[in-house]
Amino acid sequence: MRLRTLGLYLLQAAATLVGISFIMFAITMLGTQDLARQLITGAEDTIVSQAEIDAVTRELGLDEPFFVQFGHWLLSAAQGDLGFSYMARKPVVDKILECLPATVTLAAASLVLMTAISLPLGILAAYHKNRWLDYAIRGATFFGISIPGFWMGLMLLWSLGLKLHLFPIVSSTVRWDTLFLPALTLAISMSAKYTRQVRSAVLEELGQDYVVGARARGMSELHILTRDVLPNALLPLITLYGLSIGSLLGGAAVVEIVFGWQGLGNLAVKAIEYRDIRLLQGIVVWIAGMYMIVNLIVDLLYGVLDPRLAKKGARP
Fold first, then answer.
1. 119 CB-near residues (< 8 Å, 6+ apart)
2. Distance CA 74, CA 18 (A)
């Protein structure tokens, strides 16, 4: 990627972040007439004095015009200050960084499991096209796509945790045994989609002339698959893989709530519940930033894996 292209991308990313921040700021600031009271009491129904409400209103700058409030917040955010979380009683950045390791760990484990499931199943389905194994794998993927994530998580908890006692039901620490079930829940849902994508990509490559030529030269199917088919078949899947990484790094709220996983998704739900607008705004900016960074990495990977695309400056 050329420096000019990189510079244009960074400008575009900055403009997108500002736009997303403005929309999120506008949404979270709706109905602020009762926001100060909710910030003081949290989710509880407690009586507070008007003096306390007025003090919090002035402290948050809620008495200022909307664009003035957004300008102050944007200037602080540009300097790395996303505000103060009244729910956590600490700066928003500190709270996000506190939950980030759990989110990154869950995302990495989910992606590893998803790859281990979808890649071999997609290849098998492609090599046995329109046979019983292909039909069985496609049927399983349809089943996986149709099942809601929270239901799958509850069923795994009930079967593997409650009945078989293989994994703990609830835990506040991050260990392999507490990580496996939420990671498997996310991996099953993602694998259902990626298996179909891998099957389609491998089928397309198996019909290419270079595969026919390799077979005519007596090369083994394993050699053709690993050296020729897979590198070309997986290239179009990098974009989907990157989107999944960005989504997981933003937190998987439903799965995290089911398993009590203390990640960013769970934190975002709590921020909504307590009307912690600064924390919610910070999480949204983080998620948007992750998508921007992952998208840039995907573009760079395309240029490395296929130099022809780097010269054209486009994706397949």
1. 194, 198
2. 8
Q: Are 251 and 264 in contact (CB under 8 A)?
A: yes
Cα–Cα distance between 118 and 124 in angstroms, integer? 10
Per-residue exposure over 88-106, b if at least 16 CB sit within 10 Å of its own CB, e if not: beebbbebbeebbebbebb
The span from the CA of 108 to the CA of 191, in Å, is: 14
Which position has the token pair 């991050």? 174
> Nearest-5° angle of CA 248, CA 250, CA 251?
65
The pLDDT assigned to 308 comes to: 56
Residue 185 CA, chain-centre distance (Å), reads 14
The answer to whether the beta carbons of residues 21 and 77 sit under 8 Å apart is yes
Quote the crossing angle between the two packed helices 176-206 and 132-146, to the nearest 10°.
130
Closest by CA to 43, choosing from 271, 277, 274, is 274
Residue pair 266/103 in contact (Cβ under 8 Å)? The answer is no
Asked if residues 166 and 268 have their Cβ atoms less than 8 Å apart, the reply is: no
Residues 281 and 272 sit within 8 Å (Cβ to Cβ): no
Q: Are 189 and 152 in contact (CB under 8 A)?
A: yes
* Lookup result for tokens 């077979």: 215
Question: What is the 8-class DSSP label of residue 235?
Answer: G
Model pLDDT, residue 43: 52
**C-alpha to C-alpha distance for 223 and 180, rounded to whole angstroms:** 33
- How confident is the model at residue 41, as a pLDDT? 64
**Intervals of the chain under pLDDT 70:** 1-2, 30-48, 60, 171-173, 250-251, 303, 305-316
